[in-house]
Each structure stands twice: as structure tokens, then as C-alpha cells.
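Let us practice reading a record.
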Amino acid sequence: MPYCSQCGAQLVEHIVFCTVCGRRVEGASSAQARGPDLGALTANVAGLLAYVLGFITAIFFLVVEPYRRDPFVRFHAYQSIFFSVAYLVASAAFGILTTLFFGLPLAPAGYVIHLVWTFVQLGFLAGWIVLMYKAYTYERFLLPYIGPWAAREAG
């Protein structure tokens, strides 16, 4: 097995970027850049598409052959599901807080919470874009807390 020239991590055969440090693997051909052939889609495109509609596309790639057997696609599908759950939980929490504060005489606090929620949503959007980019470049980017859980579920 080859090793990364920068960090020394052991590399999988079909990857173009080191999964530990992100450095491009020396001598990676354009055929390797495509990744393993899974039928209609390569693994990196399937990993990217797992994030597009959150639960829907992630569950699709966890159910449909041959994508459900690929560990890279499974990891990104699980991470997409957990990221979507985190967004829904944050949305519900901020919704409850906003409703409570707008109903009380502390209405200005409701506006502040609503403004904070707007920035949190922008953070989720930025994270979603980064996750799709990392999947497309064949990187296994682990989010804090969610990533290790997704890696464990993907096997």
C-alpha cells in the first residue's frame, strides 16, 4: 500500500487526496481521480449527491445497489443524515426560543434570537457547501461529533 508523502498515512488505492492531511497523492492518474466505478455514478459524485436533499438522497444511497456497499458513499450518506438532524434540532430550538421571547414583554430579545438564528443558518449553509465540495474531491471530511458517529455507522 502507498503512503502519503506529507504525513505518512497509509493510502487507499483509488483516492486522489490523502484522507488525513488532504494533500494530493503523487502520481494519481485521471482514471484514479474518477474513483471506483459504481455503475452510473462514481463514488465522489454519489457522495456529493448524498448531501443535496439531506435525508432523501442520503437514504437513497444507503438503499440502492451498488452505492450502499461503498464505504465512502455510506460515510457521506450517514453524515448527511446526521447533519440534517442537527439542522432540524437547531431549527426547532431556535423556533421555540423565538416564540417564547416574542410572547413575553421581552420582545427585543426575540429579535436578537432571530438574528442569531439567521447567522446559524448561514453557518449550516456554509457547512453544507463544504461537505459537498469535500465529498466531490474524494475527501472524507469528518464534522465534529457527527463525523466519527457517521464513520462508525458506515463501517
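A brief commentary: The chain has two domains: 1-34, 38-154.
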